Amino acid sequence: MIVNLNHIVDQVVKDKGVKRDVLIEALESAVLSAANRKYRNTRDLEAHYNEETGEVEVFEFVTVVATTEDIEDSYKQILLDEARESDPDVQVGDELGMKIEATNFSRIAAQTAKQVIIQKVREAERESVYNEFRDRVGELANGIVRRYERGGDLIVDLGKSEAILPQRQQVFRESYRQGDRIRAYIMDVNLSSRGPQIVLSRTHENLVAALFTSEVPEIADGTVELKGVSREAGSRSKIAVYSNDPDVDPIGACVGMRGSRVQNVVTELHGEKIDIVPWSEDVAQFACSALAPADVSRVYVDKESHTLEIIAPDDQLSLAIGKKGQNVRLAARLLNWRIDIKSESQAAGDTRTPGYVVDPLKERRGRPSRAEEAEDEAAENAEPAVPAEEGSVEGREDADGGADLPGMP
Prior knowledge:
By secondary structure, the protein is α+β, with helices and mostly antiparallel strands. It folds into 4 domains: 6-130, NusA, N-terminal domain (N Utilization Substance Protein A, Chain:P, domain 4, 2-Layer Sandwich); 137-200, CATH 2.40.50.140; 204-279, 2-Layer Sandwich (GMP Synthetase, Chain A, domain 3); 286-374, K homology (KH) domain (GMP Synthetase, Chain A, domain 3, 2-Layer Sandwich). It is 33% helix and 25% strand. It has helices spanning 6-16, 20-38, 80-86, 107-134, 205-215, 217-220, 250-255, 260-268, 283-290, 317-321, 326-335, 360-366, 370-381; strands at residues 45-50, 55-65, 77-79, 95-100, 140-148, 154-157, 162-165, 181-192, 195-201, 224-232, 236-243, 273-278, 298-302, 307-312, 338-343, 357-358. α2 packs antiparallel against α4. The chain is elongated, with a radius of gyration of 39 Å.
């Protein structure tokens, strides 16, 4: 090989994104494979890339012996006199490396070298793609739909590689055509003999979390935390949020101005309904929030069995359970507690040990609302009313209890 390979190496590195040392190693391995095939693996050969000349040089290594009687393998041993023609300072027992002209390789050997180079480049490309997407597990990926495989799996082009969206990870209400853009959650990356296999998902619960992270800056910077997500893909999701800053409303941050942020997520999920509830350390209060929009009367907490028994008003029971039990099912997943729900009439005869009952709404019912607090504050700041004189219009009331207006009898 007299051709300078530096330019070719640089071009392949630029176009394929393969590391230079990996490509040079592939060249050395390819040329060595061709040389061993030519000489039928009878010689001790090594290949080294010369950066200055841009050539892969092949060296044959032999051991120096003193006499012909010491020669056991003529391909791997050489007499001292012959060795000193190449290196005058060589001694008996030294290893002598002699350069072999690469142009002596046959056409078949050169074809072998080409195949090895192509294989090495493909392996390097696969490893590069694997290393890139391995660190992106748990993130969102944007791609273009290429085709449907037998069995319903969807092949998505991500640019540098293709990914698979298995049928079980597809939402039953969604359908795609070739050329459609798709956004999915990177669930797993596996390295197989055919290259890296990137597995996407449209049903994963973390897809909702990733979409909110991309839409809500407060979640991205850690001001608002996503404490949990429960989802029935294509139908409804519930997310629990908590703010580390008392001045930031976690629900308002997720909803956005005029609902713009949550609407972007809903649009991406093709109309899937999303409930955003505040997270609380008090599991009873958290359960009441998770069952919204239904009202809850009482919550019985059994920490030993990790069970919540919730009592709802009779007219709120069906709303708390939800269609086909969806609301209470999603709430149970969000809390990671078992939930048993009853109406007040069903629980009328139940008895509970003192201290076992937790009524999260009791304190809230006993505390005045913001409007009531504002009215009380305004009443305190108002000037005291002057008593009306007897017989005045303000002081007379008719038999119905209403004040008489001026000019009325």
